[in-house]
Structures are given as structure tokens and as C-alpha cells.
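Notes from the pairing session

We agreed to fold both candidates in a single pass and log them together. This is the raw record for the first candidate, unedited. Please don't reformat it; downstream parsing expects exactly this layout.

Candidate A
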Amino acid sequence: MMKFLFGTFSSLFLLVSIAVIYYWRDIQFNPSAMDLWLYFIIIPVVLSLILLAPYFIYLAYHAYQKRKAQQQKSQSDQHKSEDDSSETQLNTEDMQWLHLNIFSSFTFHAWGENETIIDELKKFRSPELDHRLTNGYGLPVLSYRISALDEMLLQQQDEPEIEEKQERLQRINALIEYQLEQHTEILVEVAEHLKRSAFFYDHELAYQYRLHPAWMDLREQAGEEEEQYDQVEQVPRLNRLNIHILFADNLIHVWNESASNAILLNFAESLGIVSQQVHIEHHFLSQERGYQDWLNLLQHISTQSQEISLILNINSEIDQEFLDEKIWLSEQYLAAEFSSSWCIAAQPVQINAIQPQKILNIARNVVDLSMCLTQVIPDHAQLVQQEQPFVLILDDALDIQVIKKNNQLFAPTFIETHHFLFTQQCMGHTQQLAKIFGFMLGMHLPEELTAMIYSNAQASTHAFFQVADEANPFKQQAN
């Protein structure tokens, strides 16, 4: 670097000196000592600084980037050491089981819905060229766009409030509404159970239900007396419906929670649920801690023995304005959109005697995976002999360290690599909620298989989906 600076100064010094000397000779100028300093030292130095300014700016920017990368690495190492220390502490604790009932489930992706997404994962399908999104050169880019969502938005163009929103927010709102529609059937049963529970356990809420338009209309249609229609009978107590909406953390400053709450409350009331029994929470999750926060949420739900929850996991980055910001940092940025949802409750919760679709068993603080498998799948030796994939891995399939750790972890259980399905790639670079989407997608693996979910982000945690029947060992224990 010093040679480069000295060479630049020397070249400018010679050029300026030759020009000044010839000029002074032609005009027969007699320079003073100040003139010599000015023309032979100061001017070459100033010209050198002007000429080298872009180079200095580049060096400063490069040093800033390097320092920032080092800080991020040190923070990452610190988090890793904290995770390792917490993992070591967990290994000394007993294995903890969480049991939840899933009454309905729906996933939506560019590849389709539910089982269709699983089928496309097995085919290693690639993203498609998106002619509505362009890069910095005006060329179409690859994306995971849900084409069906474009048709939904075309039908809503006449609504004035839709046109005022950014494209990304429009698509997220449409995804929320579509997910709500998929759970209408089970939520109608929830509304009925909430009403019957209120009649038996809470006179004030019962009064609110008697005045609710949805139930008043039903009484009129039934043509029955109010006392006969509102007959009080004992049912398992159900206090409220919790609605959890999971968003990426980059939406925290642009998402209108009040408007979202109004939409959700109107939907609940249209089904006959009074607003006093609806609790709404918005969760803005980061890529680093999103999966841990997700598991904590499931653990919290597993303790709510008199409540039921609707979880909506929504994200979309299909927006030219948003993509322009990302492409400026990474030219190969791959945007995606997806949504998933569950109607879920703790194991003791009953909804009008409806059987759950599947039971979710989550093992935390697992030290010996073989022992864990023996508890949840007594005949797991037969499971590993078949060739169908049944383990969803939520991590990057191209990360060598992840592959090595997975091989070491699953080798004693005889679960092999052909039993794995990696979900992360189908969300491109839209990764804040990708692990949660992959987790919820596990509901749609074939029913004859016990689906297993795993991520290195929480190495001591394993999740299993099982059909809710008498063959479930945990159900037998509960009975």
C-alpha cells in the first residue's frame, strides 16, 4: 500500500514540477520559498488525496464490513457457547414430554397444499421464474410465488382499503383470510362448545351468548322455545379461544395490529363466539430465536387445560419494493411466501367429543434418542425398515456440519439419510418462519407413519406426530 501511495505522489510531483518549471521559465518568474512549497509540495499532496479519495473510501468501507463481520461472528460464537452451556445443563435434567391434540391443520405453499407439498419435496422441485419480480437489470427472478393468491387478490381489487396497502401486506392479509376459512368447520364446533360451557359454568357469559346475533338467528330458524334451545347440560369446561399469529420480525413496524385484531374478532363473532372469549396475540419472530420461541409457545399451550388455540404462521416477501432492498445486498436473493395453521389444544381438552386428527408428542431434554424412540414408538425397528421418508429436518441440507451431526445423532437408531426430508430449501431466503412452517408441515406426512421433526437449532428436542387412536402409547397412559 505504501508503494502505491508513494508512486502516486511521485508521479503527480513530477508532472506538476515539469509543468510549473516550464511555465515559470517562459514567463521568467522568480519564485519565492512559499511558491516552492505551494507548487512542489502542497499541490501534489492535494492532487494525490483527491485522486486517491475513492480508494480510501473503499478501504474504509471494507474495514467497516470486516469489523462488522467480526462482531457478528463474536456474537454468534457467544450465542453458540450459551446454547452449548444450556444444552449441557439440559443433559443433566430429566426428559420432558409435551402432549397436544391437533384438531385441524392446513399448509399453503407455491407447490400446493398439505400432502402436495410433501410430494414436491420428495421430487426436489426447484423455484420457478417469476415474471412479476425483476432484479436490478430488469430481468425476471426465481421465486416461490403462490399463483392462486394472485387470483384471490384480483377479486379484492374493488375494495379501497386493499389498494392502499403494500403488495406484501395485501398478500399476508389474503393468506390470513384463506387460512381462517380452512378451519371454519372445527371452529364452529369450538363456538358451540364455548356456548354450552358458558351456559353451565358462567351465567354472565351465558347471557352474552343468548343476546349474540348468531345464536338468536339459529333459535329463530329452529323454531324452538328459548328455554328448550338453550338447554343447560354439563360439558368439559372451555374458557376461551386463543389466536396466535406468527409474523417475521421485519413486519413489526409496518403491521397494523388493531386492524388485524378487528378482522379476527369479526371472524370469531361470525361463528358465534363472543369477543370476551377470544384472546389474540401477535408474535414477531426472528430467524435466530424463532424456533425456540415456537417450542416455548407449544409448551405454554400444553399447560392450558381449559383453552383451545388457533395458530397462524404467515409470511410473504413477494413484493418488488421489498425485493429491491434485498437484491441490493444479495443479487441471488430468492423470495418466497407460505402459510400454515393449526387448531391445537392441550391433551385434556375435549371439543364436543371430536377426535383430534393427530397427537403431537414433543420430547425435550433428550439425551438418549434410542430411549426416546422406544417410549414413543415401541416398534420403531419396523419403522426404519421401510424406505419412505418420515423425518423432517428443518435445517440447511447443504450445511456439511448439519449433515455430520445428523448422521452421528441418528446412526444408533438405524434411521438413515433416505428417511430424511429437508424443508428449508423450499422457502428460499425467506427464513424467519421457515422452521415453523416445516414443523407444521409434518402433520401431512402419511398417517401410517409416525412423523418425526428435528432441528439442530434445538438439538435436545424431538417431535412426533401420531394418529389419535388406541395404538398411541401416550393415549393409553392417559386413559
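Candidate B (folded immediately after A)
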Amino acid sequence: MTRIENAKIMVVDDMPNNLRLLDKMLTGSGYHVSCFPKGALAIKSAKRNPPELILLDINMPEMNGYEVCKRLKADSQLSHIPIIFISALNNTEDKIMAFKSGGVDYITKPFKFEEVEARIQTHLKIERLTEQLEKHNEDLEARLDQKSRELKEANERLMILDKAKSDFLTQISHELRTPLNSILGVMKMLMDNGSGSMSSDIVEMFEGSKEKLMSIINDATLLTQIKVSEDSFNREKAGLKPILENAVNLSGMTEKGRTLECGEIPQNIFIYADRTLIDKAFESLFKTALILSRENSAMHFSCEDTEQGNTKLLLMKLNVKGQNIPEAILPNFFSEFSHGQTISSEGDFGLAPALTHRIFKINNAKVEAGNTQDGVEFIITFSEKSVIRENE
């Protein structure tokens, strides 16, 4: 940094000779100098016309240099001004007192002007750099505030759009259900009236298609609601065993000839989540597993505590014997509409994988899928936020 020219320097000393000497030297070096024989006069002038640096004597009548320094530092408009004490006092205690009162440097009389000049330049540069840094910080804070406001506004617009999308899909769902229920009702009446002439395969196909269609509508509506309002769900403590039993019943696992074998489930571990949604997540996971599983096979479920670094995790695994997930689909298996083709004779996955992923995510858990030698393994990992361990 180049030499600072034309800086305003205030000199405070009760000795006229000292004032004249410093005035002459500083003026000759290009500084604008103001001299005062008393501290009170210096303070009054500083408030009216603040200097950039002050050279301050200690031993002065009425108000010594320490008191002058303290009063200047107590004024929010003047506290930033660097004050260099310049005194004949050479004791360590005097120097400590000078720094405690707010001084940034201490020069002992008699002095060499080259030393005074060097220290003045050093502290002027420090002050200028400090001012630049503060200005830079203010600019950064202003830009950050502006970006935060823009981000908030964008987020609010996004929420409005998401809400509009949710309302639209809810309305579409309602509009679809009304004629669909009528069509399904008529079809049911026709089937009931002509049940003798219709094969069981046709009846089964109708019931399966009806169930699949209604499931897609319900899942699409719920998936959209979760995206829009993922922070507004009610969380509560729920035992893992009742959750699994409920999911088995809702998924139709038993009716389709599959069983669930569970390893030991810790009785002191509970899931802290929205109960309705977490039931739906496991139901959707089991429905997904059913599509991949072999007929009359058993799925194996296990649960254990584990650690990652210093963080406790609850790890669950669902092993399914059956077919693998195609490698091309596997990386995005839980994304919406990632399954471009039917990969199982049991039917399409629909939105079940995406719904499973979304519900686990908002409940501080993640679900992953991987192929095994004889099927698929699903891994669910709950973070500490969603696990309650009692009697630990």
C-alpha cells in the first residue's frame, strides 16, 4: 500500500514547544495538522471535525491523556480513530495503562521523527484497510440480504405454484373419480347380472384394473400433497411391529401367497413419524416387493442399530426372493415415472416406489434398492431424528 498523503492529524500536548515541533514536522511531511494544549479542547474539536489519527501526551493538567483517550473511545462517532500516545513516561505500567485506555501505540520522548512518521503511516494504513474491509462486509451483507429476499420471493412463488398444482391435481382426481365410479358401478352391475356368462379371469382382470387405477389416483394425489406440505404433518411415536403388521395387511401380501419373516425387532425402539404416512410408505414398499417376488415365497425383514461415525442409525433390510431390477432402471428406481416398461408379470409399479421414497425422506429416512443373487434387497435407514430409544 502506497504512502497515505494529506491525512488529518490531531496533536494534543500541554507543552507549546512540543506542539510547534510536531506541527512543523508533520506539516512538512504533507499532513493537515491541528494542535491543542488541553484534552477538553481536543475532544470538542474532534466531535466537530474528526481527525484520522491522534498523537496524545499523557501528563497534562485538568485532564490527562488516559482520560482523554477513554472519552474518545466511549464516543461511537470517534472510537475508530487510532490514538498513539507520545510521552516522556517510560515505565511499563504507564505503557500498559495507555493500551488499556484504548491506545494503539506508544512512542517515548525524546523521539526521532522518522519513527513517528513510520508509526503514523502504519496505523493510517491499518485504519484505511479496516474501513475498506468494513465497507466490503457491508456490501456483501447488502448483496446477501438482496439475494435472500429474492430467494424468499422465489420460494414463495414456487409454493404458490406447487399449491396451484396440488389443487389442480386434487380437482382432476375428483373429476376423474366421479365418472370413473359411475363407469365402475355400471360395469359391476353388468358383471353381477351376467356373472354366469363371464369367466373368473375377466372378473379378476376387472377387479385388478379397478384397484390399480384407483391406487394410481390416490398415490398421485398424496404424492403431490406431500411435496407441497411436507412440513405440516403430525409426527408421533409408533412401534415398528404394529407398523409392519398394518403394512402387510394393507399390501395384500397374505392374499397373494407371500409371507413376511421378521428377525428380532427391538421392543424399546420406536419410529417418530407421521403414522398414517409411515404406514403408507411400508405398504407401498411391500407392494413394490410383491411385484418382484416369486409366487409362494417369503420375504425376510431385519432391523438393527448401527453407527456412522458418532451418529446412531436404525437400519432395516427387506430381502425379496424373485427377479432383479434391471440395471438401467436401478439408479432411478424410486423416481417418479422412471419405469418406462413393465418388468414383471405381476404388473407395473405405478407410483409406489416414488411414494415410498418421498414419505421416508420427509421422515428423516432414506430407502435404497440393490440386486442380490436371488432377488432384491431394500435398505431403509432412519436417522437419529426419527428414532426413539427407551430405557437406554
